[in-house]
Amino acid sequence: MSRSFPAQDALIGRLDELGTLSQLRRRRIQNLPCSPAMLSDEQPMLGFASNDYLGLANAPALIATAQAAAARWGVGSGASHLVSGHTEAHETMDQTLAEFTGFEAAIGFSTGFLANLAVMPALLGRNDAIFADRLNHASLVDGALLSRAELHRYAHLDLQALEHALAQSRAKTKLIVTDAVFSMDGDIAPLPALLELAERYDCWLLVDDAHGFGVLGPQGRGTLASFGLQSPRIILMGTLGKAAGVGGAFVAASQVLIRWLEQTARPYIFTTAMPPLLAACVTRAVELISHADDRRAHLQALIRSLHAGLAGTRWQLLPSGTAIQPVIIGGNAEAIEVSRQLEACGIYVPAIRPPTVPKGTARLRVSLSAAHTEAELGQLCEALRALSDLADLSDSEPRA
C-alpha cells in the first residue's frame, strides 16, 4: 500500500466531501455495444443515457465501413496531421463535412473538447474579448480561459445583457460563443439574433453544435441550417461521437479561418490524427445522416410521447424539443434516489448534479435515440409516473 502524505490526505478529504454532498460519480462498465439495451455492471438495463441520437453507433453499415477501412489503412495514423498522419481518408472526411454543413472548408479533431480548446486561443489574445453564454459546455469555458482574452459570461440566453457587454467593449477582436443545443437543458440558442449582434458589433460567432449536428435542420445538417444561417463570421464546431455514431469532431468555417487553424491551433498541430478508419466511418455516417429523415421523425415522436406520458406528474420537464429531455428533480439526494429506483426497475437514466447544473436543479437527463421504441419509452414513463406518486424521496440515504 502506498504511503500517505499531506497533499494526498487532502484529496481523500475532498473525495469524502463529494460523497457527503451526493456529488461523487462513478464509472459503469458496459458489456454490450452502444444501444438502448445495456449490460451495466453485469445488470441488464434499458438505457436512456447515451448521445447516440440516431442509433448509428452500432449500425451494420458503419461496422462494415470500419472493417474495410481497417483492412485498407490499419488502426493508427501514426503522427499528427502536419507530419505524416493526414491520410486520404481524413481529407475526404474534411471535404465531406464542409460540403454537408455548407461551409467553405472543415478541419477534423480527435475530440470535441480538443476542437473547442483549439479555436479561441488561435484567434484571440490578451487584448481581445469573448462573450459566452453562462451555460456553455465546459470545453468552451476552458478554451476561452486558455485564450487569455477578457471573458464576459452573460446570463443564459440574455441577449440584452450580451448586447450591453458588447457595446461597452473596446476589444480589438471580439467573439461570441454559444452552444447551439445546450447539453443539460436541451434548449436552442437564438442563433439568428446572435448573428445579428455579431454583425452589428463586428464579432466572430462560434457555435458548438455537438447536440444538433445530425439531428436538426434539413437532412440533419445542424442547428445553423435549421435557421438557414450562413456568414463568414460563423465558426461551427460539431462532434462526431453523438448523432454521427463514430468519434472525433470538426470545425467548419471560411477557407481562410480553417487555414489559420491548420497553422496555429495547438491541439491540431501537436496531436496524433484520429485513426483513418474512424475518418472513413465519419464520411459514411454523413451519408447515412443525410438519408435519416425517418429516424429524425421517430425521434420527434418519442419526444412528444415522453411529454404526454409524464403530464400531470410532479416531475418538471423543461421545454426541450431536442433529444435531450431533462426531468428536474431538485435536490441531489432525491435525484440520485429516483435514478436508483429506476435502476431497480431495469431502467438507467443518469442523475445530473451540481456543478454540472446549477444548485437546486439536479435532474434526470433523459437522452432519447431513434433506436428507442415507443414501447421502451412507455416503460420509462410508467416507472416515472409510479415514482411520482410515492412520498418525497429526498430523505433517502444519499448514494454515490
Word description of this protein:
The protein is α/β, with parallel strands linked by helices and 400 residues long. It folds into 2 domains: 121 residues, Aspartate Aminotransferase, domain 1, CATH 3.90.1150; 217 residues, Aspartate Aminotransferase, domain 2. It is 42% helix and 16% strand. The strands form 3 sheets. The chain has a 7-stranded mixed β-sheet, sandwiched between helices. It is globular, with a radius of gyration of 22 Å. The two termini are 25 Å apart.
Keywords:
disordered C terminus, Aspartate Aminotransferase, domain 2, 15 helices, 2 domains, 16% strand, 400 residues, single chain, alpha/beta, four-stranded antiparallel β-sheet, seven-stranded mixed β-sheet, Aspartate Aminotransferase, domain 1
Task: Provide the fold topology.
Elements: H1 6-20, E1 37-40, E2 43-47, H2 60-73, H3 81-85, H4 88-101, E3 105-109, H5 112-123, E4 129-133, H6 138-147, E5 150-154, H7 159-168, E6 174-179, H8 191-200, E7 203-208, H9 223-227, E8 234-239, E9 249-253, H10 255-264, H11 266-269, H12 276-290, H13 293-309, E10 316-317, E11 324-330, H14 332-344, E12 347-348, E13 351-352, E14 362-367, H15 374-388
Parallel strand pairs: 2-12, 4-5, 4-6, 6-7, 7-8
Antiparallel strand pairs: 1-2, 3-9, 8-9, 10-11, 11-14, 13-14
Helix pairs in contact: 2-12, 4-12, 5-6, 13-15
